[in-house]
Amino acid sequence: SQTIHQWPATLVQPVGSPLSLECTVEGTSNPNLYWYRQAAGRGLQLLFYSVGIGQISSEVPQNLSASRPQDRQFILSSKKLLLSDSGFYLCAWSNGQDNSPLHFGNGTRLTVT
Amino acid sequence: GQNIDQPTEMTATEGAIVQINCTYQTSGFNGLFWYQQHAGEAPTFLSYNVLDGLEEKGRFSSFLSRSKGYSYLLLKELQMKDSASYLCAPGRGGYNKLIFGAGTRLAVHP
Description:
- The complex is a heterodimer of chains A (113) and B (110).
- By secondary structure, chain A is an all-beta fold.
- Chain A is built from no helices and eleven strands.
- Chain A has strands at residues 3-7, 10-13, 19-26, 32-38, 44-52, 55-58, 65-70, 73-78, 87-94, 103-104, 108-112.
- In chain A, strands 2, 4, 5, 6, 9, 10 and 11 form a seven-stranded mixed β-sheet that branches. In chain A, strands 1-3-8-7 form a four-stranded antiparallel β-sheet, with no helix packed on it.
- Chain A starts with a strand and ends with a strand.
- The model of chain A has no long low-confidence stretch (mean pLDDT 93).
- Chain B is mainly beta.
- At the A-B interface, strand 4, strand 5 and strand 10 of A face strand 4, strand 5 and strand 10 of B.
């Protein structure tokens, strides 16, 4: 069966520091991968998605970037965090078909201080 | 553009039935997903509709009307563990890009 791992679970970082969140998927090949962010009391906002190694599409221009160095690895990064980057970051995968749901990792709660 | 409208909060009694409505506007619509999200946790998949009509899955059912841009999630025989947020998510375009509403926070009380 497929599993998705995301770490760390929680993170507290000062403004201006770098960020790296990692997500890996097991049990499937060539998945679509996604990064979402959920601000407190808000809906999930799609940040990036990827349909293959090295292929990244950005949905919302902001202080973040994403990379997919391997088929089942997806990384979210920032060079300098802003206070507004605080939130609940969720990685997800799907098999790419229209009727395929997204399956989410457990998420990373990021607090920028 | 995309727009999703759900009630912010609902309350219901254990054992009862509750219907959570969702209206949406999105380009390239290719189906609608419902997710459950307990506080502090990741969303989990509940149901998917692509054709008009009702899909039943145990205590949960979901309905879709594509022409009206309308869906609802029906929860029967409510249990305390059903207290959570329920997220309506229309898919758009290709690549399974789901757009999520802010969700409906359901509180089930004895």
